[in-house]
Amino acid sequence: MHAQGDDGLSETERTFLFLVGSTRAEGNTETLARRAAEQLPPGVDRRWVHLRDLPLPLFEDHRHDGDGVAPAPTGHAATLLDATLRATDLVIVSPLHWYTVSTSTKLYLDHWSDWMRVPGLDFLERMRGKTLWSVTVHGGQDPATAAPLVGTLRHTAAYAGMRWGGALLGHGKRPGDVLRDTAALGRAKAFFA
Q: Nearest 5°: phi and psi at 5?
């Protein structure tokens, strides 16, 4: 017998997609996200995607081009779209950059606007009911500086009809600093519960 979550899915039916938007390999934010992911039950599928390894083209707004239809994505955009649609849970793993998500994370989210306009894709319908989570590490003293990042992702979840799973915040400036943030490491243990 498998435990079921609030979404009615058993643990073995859940797929967590961790979208890492850091420019640094194994940075503080990814370290904190991996600590949280360690607590997921063994049957839960986990996929880690580093956005820096799948660079996206600059976003072009097609809303007002003729009929407003966007072309089907190709290359890395198609890879990310497929991973996004296969996941039940999307975890945005982005360090705090100028009070919001990193450039690669923002570009990934911008491409959602095109994916909503691809004929027959039904992107928003297929996103409905998934859960969006956030993990971020900030270097400042005031965790409130992460409020714009959290707000961006909460509004994104609401717009797409997704559940908001919550935000896990940590503190760290230099590589490895988050491992000294015992409060964040403690929150990570129960974050996905």
A: -90, -175
CATH at 186: 3.40.50.360
Q: What is the pLDDT of residue 95?
A: 96
| Amino acid letter, residue 140 | G
CA atoms within 13 A on the CB side of 158: 7
Cut 0.70: pTM above it? yes
The CA-based diameter of the chain, rounded to the nearest angstrom, is 54
Q: Which residues of the chain have pLDDT under 70?
A: 1-12
Q: What secondary structure letter does DSSP report for 71?
A: P
pLDDT score for 175: 93
Number of domains within the chain = 1
Going across the sheet that includes 131-138, the strands are: 45-50, 15-20, 89-93, 131-138, 163-171
Tell whether 2 is covered by a domain.
no
Its domain, for residue 160, covers 11-190
Look up residue 192 and give its DSSP letter. Answer: T
